[in-house]
Amino acid sequence: MRNWLGNDGNWIAAGLVAAITVPLLSFVAGMPFWIAAIIALFIFAGLVILLTPRRLFEGLDIKNIGRGRVAFARDLLEAAVPSAERLETAAEGISDKQAAAAVLHLAEIAADVFRKVEAKPENANAVRRFLSYYLPRAAEVAEGFAVIEAKRVPDPRQLEEVRAVLVKLEEAFVHYADSLVDEEFGTLDTDLRLIQASLKEDLGR
Questions:
Q1: CB atoms within 10 A of CB 142
Q2: End-to-end CA distance of the chain
Q3: Which residues, including other chains, have CB under 8 Å from residue 146's CB and lie 6 or more apart?
Q4: Residue 133's pLDDT is what?
Q5: What tens digit of pLDDT does each residue of 99-142 get?
Q6: Keywords of this protein's UniProt record, alphabetized (predicted)?
Q7: Do 154 and 148 meet the contact criterion of CB atoms below 8 Å apart?
Q8: Nearest 5°: CA angle at 19, between 13 and 25?
Q9: How far is C-alpha 107 from the chain's CA centre?
Q10: Are 43 and 18 spatial neighbours (Cβ–Cβ below 8 Å)?
Q11: 12 class by beta-carbon count within 10 Å (0-12 exposed, 13-18 middle, 19+ buried)
Q12: In angstroms, what CA-CA distances link 68 with 64, 96, 114?
């Protein structure tokens, strides 16, 4: 399961390493248990700090972008995480390879949208409908396929209907992912027109 917002996991990893360290030092290296425990504690604390993941929007100039825009993007992403996780879990639970691949592809596109919104939170409004409507509906459809598939005698017609909807959802997912690129291209297009106008004025062509 992917870490959608990159904000957990360091405590678990540090705990596992510390838990392994104590018996290794005590039984393999022959250290007293209390010394092994102290060393493991230091290792745990160090790993928690070392493995602390980057926070959402860390490194961005929030003042320049606007706190309101960043807060809006954060709320959208955080609200969409459960649906994204459901979509990924559904893909893992579908035995039909073609359908599972289609659902997993939707999850990958969603992850791409998450990354782009985090990099450019000011463009979040372009994918507001995607995050609040299409992503949850896609999770429901994927889970529905898994439910139908789990029947002793799955209805082929129902499975084909769900597959057709997955194809349409993929088109919507790609559309919204590309809309974030279009937001960037809009600025480039303006810059190109200004440059062309300046060149025409200065060079006459």
A1: 29
A2: 56
A3: 90, 93, 94
A4: 97
A5: 999 999 999 999 999 999 988 999 999 999 999 999 999 999 99
A6: Hydrolase, Membrane, Transmembrane, Transmembrane helix
A7: yes
A8: 125
A9: 8
A10: yes
A11: exposed
A12: 11, 43, 18
Tokens representing 152?
């002793």
- Tokens 């250290």, located at residue: 31
**Mean pLDDT score across all residues of the chain:** 84
SS3 (DSSP) at 23: helix
117 touches 60 (CB < 8 A):
no
Phi, psi at 102, each rounded to 5°: -65, -45
Structure tokens at 181: 């690129």
Residue 43 near residue 17, CB atoms below 8 Å = yes
- 160 CB burial (10 A radius; 0-12, 13-18, 19+): exposed
Those residues with Cβ within 8 angstroms of residue 129's Cβ, 6 or more apart along the chain or in another chain: 176
Which of 7-21, 84-98, 136-150, 158-172 has the least mean pLDDT? 7-21
